[in-house]
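Re: weekly structure request thread

Next one in the queue (676 aa):
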Amino acid sequence: MYLKKLILFFSFTISSFSQELGNLLDNLNNYTDKTNLNIDYKPTAMTVLYASDLESFGINTLGEALDFVAGIQTFKTTSVTSVVSVRGYTQPLNVFHEKIKYRINGVSASSNYFENFPINLIERVEISKGNASTIYDQSGFVAVVDIITKDKNSIYFGTGSFDSRNFSLLLNEKLNDKWNLKFATSYLKNNKKVDAPSGILTNSETFGTTFNRKRESLEGVEDFLIGGSLQSENLKISSKYIKNEKQNNYGFTGMLDWSDDGYTNYEIFSNEIAYNTFINSNNILETKLGSVESNYKMNTYLYKFEPNNFGIYDPHFKVDYTQRESYLSILIKNSTFSNHKIEYGILGTYTQIPKNKYYANVDNLTKFGAYNPFYNAYFPSQKELKEFSGKDGFISDESSKTNLSYFFSDSYSVNENLTFLTNIGVDNYQGYKELLNFRLGSVYSSDDINIYKFSISEANRNPSLIESSIVGHMMISENEDLEAEKLQSVELMYIYQQNSERLKLNLYYQKYKNSIDGRINGDILQYYNKNEDDDNYGIELEYSKSFENRSKLLFNSSYNIFEYKNKENFNLNINTPMVSKITGNIGYIYPVNSKLSISSYTKYYGKRNVLGDNKSVPEVLLFDVGASYSISKDTKIFLNIKNIFDTKQYYWGYNTNDERMLREGRTWSANFRYDF
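Done, posted below.
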């Protein structure tokens, strides 16, 4: 590792150009290695999570790991959506969340939330909070999550509560002097069920219908991943397939599905070819050609009328939608000028909709079904589903979209103590105005113990195809007049590091302008640009210390304020809706001896404000314990118990009776890992 760092820092002094390029390419695809500066000397708030620590705390997935980051909270909604909130930012009436950039080993992996990505495949996770649109196009609007997988061969399997089972295999093989092969696969499945005492059973309760199963939120998941890469000195070919299938939670509209067959299914196909050319001693050309295809399928039953009540059948809806994004990026890394590290390039993307289908046995929008004048609505009169596509499909606009993004970055070292960074990006998205994104920052340190960082930035994000073109069959409608939303931010950061002790403090102020949110238009939720600004500010603290007895303490906390306003929906003005203003995490790892370690993990979430009459979800304090035992140098077992005191905890639940969703209580997991 020490040698690798030396090579990174002094690569341009190596006489052999081919060797120089090869060593540099080892780190090209890691965000934190894009310049000769490490992450502490970048003017942005970054957190690095190491899998070795996360495993000790019983953190098994990426979703659980992100909840360990100061300023980030994860939660579910009743409408099957999993949400990542960065610095308290939420838009309660925007049910689609495409504002975080996810990358796996430097390769784009769509804007979907990879909550079940297994920690046992991960070496570390690098999280950059705040906008990064100048580097990663508009999908890096509020944060970037970089997943770096392990290099060592390993096999991993485990079991736990809700009949869960997981398996993963990682192979890293040097084929010859030129080529290296990396392969990974994983599988996870559980049958999670959570009591749902607050769930609305059905809109048809007035007709005297009865519910045909226990009041439970069905939240079982099945995840599968397979991927690999083939890499030489200057060429890397990567491909991966990820499938996530989950049950419908409370249901698409916040009501429990009448049928157990409800599901939401995401499939991601990602492919990339990266080629690097050593132009001369001062210039490296990096070219990437790739595609990311996302397939979305949904099957839901919104409510039920018994067939013998007016001869009406169960309303049943399905979606089958695919979006494909192809991209070409050209980036030049230049070191011609002393004390300057310059990068500039262009990213071209082409977005198309290969599949766009919607199925229903009743639809008010297309006047399909039996009309009931008493309710002024259409009711299902048959069991069979009818297919809708084209302009009546899931998305109304099937035309392709192109975007050209131009990028320039300059890292200027005035001296060994002071560095300035300039990032400028321009987005030219078809059908919208040209957008300018920028970040200006500085880093100062006179002693390598105290580091001071400052940044000011502005990012713009055009509406996604979902926001601008969703048809509105299931009470969610597009707005073709949507414009770009804007994020302006100022950040001040301080880092103290000496010996085995480390402290990070982030202060920030952000303003969201022209935000894309939802408003109720009749019975339809429609997207629109808000006229009022949302202010967002807070403080984030991270602290870690390693002791002489090899024990380790990790602590982080955040205080986030998001002043949410939505005048078009009951004149809403809520301070930090859906997430906690104050959070805290404390983890402690204690080695009993050379083989056995025990750990404790404490999580605190302050109260959560909600939209309805029940004003808040109560605060909660949760305790986890764990142990790991090394059978041999390469073999280890893990045992963890989460929420050991079986404390009741809730999420916000839109449309449920008291707007609180009961979460699972005490759970356990046992895992085995063998490295070879």
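DSSP finds six helices and 42 strands in the chain. The chain has one domain: 2-675.
Next request, please.
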